Amino acid sequence: MAASASLGIPFKSAIEPVPPDSIIFGKSAAMDLVRQRIEKVAGTNLPILISGESGTGKDILARLIHKLSPWSQGPFVKINCPAIPGTLMESELFGYEKGAFTGANGVKPGRVEMAHRGTLFVDEISELELGLQSKLLQVLQEGQFCRIGAQEDKKVEARIVCASNRNLQAEIDGGRFRQDLFYRINVVNVTVPPLRERKADIPTLVRYFWDTYNARYNRRTKPISEALMSKLVKHDWPGNVRELENVVKRYVVLESEESIIFEPTQGWRSGFTLDIPIDGPISLKELTRHATREFESQIIVRVLQQNRWNRRRTAKALNISYRALLYKLKQSSISRHGRNGASAIVEGEDVS
Which residues pair with 96 in a beta bridge? Predict the structure, then answer.
């Protein structure tokens, strides 16, 4: 892209720390190929497309590429396409001028502009609607964009890294993605393998997440046992590294291997997701209470299902009183259709 003078935008990106290379790449041959590809292209200004299933760590690789690039001192700006409604996406990407539309009371720079002399990471680019794809193509081809309501284009110099968990060729064939944009963003392709294809890295990842969240939440949980580690390695992890991270996070908070549910025919049940803030104060007591309550509700539902929703047999199986079970059902709003279901069983008859 063409170089230009500084746009004078008061923006400083908050780049999360990148894990060590030994954690990112592990020791699998597939990830070693990813490492070699990134090392070769990080120092160039070529657009990069990172492909892979959800949860494989595409975001971390984008941050690593930025860190290894000549523009590492510039901003790293991410836009998560699925998280932003289509009606707001254009203003988020390209910004707007004062008076461009109702409510535009001032000038707002977009993410493209904020990434000047840095890296723009477009996550899940397949979710971008066709009209905006053509505008992003202009940024890639000419290094120019136009704010909403502006009369003139602005120039920007930024490295573009995109990511997708979809087959973009299939999206092109279905008329949902521009072929010319695909050719522009796919100058260099980095394909991240799923965790099930790099199981040798699971113990290393588990220990890393265990150390990380013990330090973050000031915990002193015992290491995961060899028996549980063996089960973790055998699991296929449909949610990939993100799922593994959440499982270890939950273990650290609850300090209980029973918080990780295993079913031989269904695999690991990740259950609820802990809503733990990355920044700001954390009430460990309240968080643990909430997590325990959620975990207890999951157990009750599973035992109810195993006993065909007969509450008396369920109470006996759980070794609690019938009255205690009724209280817990009411407290958690558990119905035969799950939590907050349409037909409550608390007041109804037991199903034989």
Answer: 108, 148
